[in-house]
Design a protein that fits this description.
Strand content of chain A: under 5%
Helix content of chain A: over 70%
Order of helices and strands of chain A: HHHHEEHHHHHHHHHHH
CATH topology of the largest domain in chain A: Farnesyl Diphosphate Synthase
Largest sheet of chain A: 2 strands, antiparallel
Number of domains of chain A: 2
Structural class of chain A: mainly alpha
Oligomer: homodimer
CATH class of the largest domain in chain A: Mainly Alpha
Number of helices of chain A: 15
CATH architecture of the largest domain in chain A: Orthogonal Bundle
Radius of gyration of chain A: 20 Å
Chain lengths: ~325, ~325
């Protein structure tokens, strides 16, 4: 999936080096688990978090400053390793058979090993932080971010099947679950490359807007994917009791129509799901959520415009558009 | 269970203050989880790890140095919070309905919430480390210890049902699973109170010996507890495929008699368990394991003897005897 970055060879190269470092750091005495962690690192998706980190770091860091870049690579790896740890634990919760096209740690080794393997992965993350961030405020910032991420996950989980869940609560959950780590990635890229305060502030805000937009586009997709294919599971979020923005907007607009579907969503038939999907669209859920996501994307792009000029600013604009557009 | 320390009022008081700090730090936005974490902290067992930490800190730290003690209390809390995090995740693995006499987080909220609540607890642990250990080698040491603990758990899990598991592998697993954190607790007590190198070195070694002995006594107990009570589950470790020292010694001494019981241990009837328990005793498993555990206890006590004289040295000797004797 690093092919996503093929038009950005510098970023792609850095991501490859990051993967190598991840494989090296995730070594564990148990051979099978080691192999699984290695595969997970190498299949590593688009590596959005380290990529955003590098895009921001590149605004300020000199390409020739090798010592600095060695540190930056470790920090980029810490972001992706934290993300991997949360994914390993997420897969326990979702009982996911696959992750990035290969069997999840849970599917390969069972829940029990997955719990400890996720914990082990968190430890590797902390080791990298300790090596790179001692004496900076970022040890503390990382701990705070991790707390927010977990509170976001817990909020979402505890409000599953809550038919009256507010849009505010949804935004809070995705703010922790997705936006927090993207925001931290951008901020760390700016900070550790030595960017000024203004750039750091913008980086944090841009990451947050991209993160929120990213998640809302993802949630929109869940209302359309698979609708035309008889055998594909559809509206998987709703059926898990996860009520996201398109549904919540439609429910605000037309509670009488929408609410009956939410009483026992785990039992919805395919037909009922198709009806609900239509109802969400008819009652402004899709366009409403799309408007909000597009607004966030525009906000991110406008903030990117305020960054110091240079080739990386152009890259960042293009990458943001590519990242968010591919989603919907 | 703090009543265990009733003859040591100073330690007991410090443990109470530690519990208060734990409750304060484990605050989480979700009300139910907050309550559960609070109950877990307040029911906190004997708090062996902070207690050992305080016993070692008391060798060197002046009682009047309030500022130092405030730091020490945070460090003691970090040890118990790390232990709690591992317990929350252990309960997922064991499907334990109870923990310290109250329903486990898993039993109360399900596996999913327990995964994230354990992760959240790890984060609070890291926050406390960052606040108290910046600029010392102990951030790194903690990360390394956590890795060893998890590798110990994974080793034990991955070698479950392995009939040929070596005594060496067993020792390695309990060394990670139990001894590592007890050793760290003693070492941190010495280091952060400003003890000299020699005391630090002894502390680490004493903690390790106590930890190994503690675990072996526990494992011995699993071969005797409940044997006389018709309705109590017995030999629970063996039936989970966890083959511990008494069994391994008996297997070395008489493989023909022992091995047949280990082929499908999850299916052993109560009668077969009683037979196996007898066989383990007849073939030197109980006395052999007891000799090793007693040897470790003696080693710890001999090392305590080498510590600087003072009232805390007497306390430490008594507490070690009490901790280990009550086990068997």
């Amino acid at each position: 999936m690093l092919s996503f970055w093929q038009d950005y060879p510098e970023i792609q190269n850095k991501l490859r080096v990051t993967q190598e470092l991840m494989v090296d750091r995730l070594k564990i005495s148990n051979h099978d688990i080691k192999t699984a962690l290695e595969a997970m690192a190498l299949q590593g998706g688009k590596m959005v978090r380290p990529a955003l980190f590098y895009l921001f770091a590149g605004l300020t860091a000199k390409a020739s400053d090798e010592k600095l870049w060695q540190q930056l690579i470790k920090i980029a790896a810490s972001l992706e390793i934290l993300h991997s740890a949360t994914l390993i634990h997420d897969d326990i919760i979702d009982d996911s058979p696959l992750r990035r096209g290969i069997p999840s740690i849970e599917a390969q080794f069972g829940k029990d090993v997955a719990v400890y393997t996720g914990d082990f992965t968190y430890t590797v993350y902390f080791e990298l932080l300790i090596e790179t961030m001692a004496g900076t405020p970022f040890l503390e910032k990382n701990a705070k971010s991790m707390k927010k991420i977990l509170q976001g996950e817990l909020t979402q989980m505890q409000s599953a099947f809550e038919t009256t869940i507010s849009i505010r609560k949804y935004m809070k959950a995705i703010s922790g679950k997705t936006a927090e780590l993207l925001s931290l990635s951008c901020l760390e890229g700016a900070y550790f490359s030595g960017a000024d305060q203004k750039t750091q502030h913008l980086a944090k805000r841009i990451g947050r807007a991209i993160g929120l937009a990213f998640q809302i586009y993802d949630d929109l997709l869940n209302f359309t994917v698979g609708l035309d294919e008889e055998n594909k599971p559809i509206l998987t979020d709703v059926r898990l009791g996860i009520f996201t923005l398109p549904l919540l907007i439609a429910r605000e607009n037309n509670p009488e129509k929408i609410l009956p579907y939410l009483q026992a969503p785990e039992k919805l038939t395919r037909e009922a799901c198709l009806e609900l999907s239509d109802l969400v669209a008819e009652n402004g859920g899709m366009t409403g959520a799309l408007l909000i996501a597009n607004g966030l994307t525009q906000k991110a792009l406008a903030d990117i415009e305020k960054l110091p000029d240079g080739s990386n600013k152009v890259l960042l604009t293009q990458a943001t558009q590519a990242l968010l557009e591919r989603k919907y």
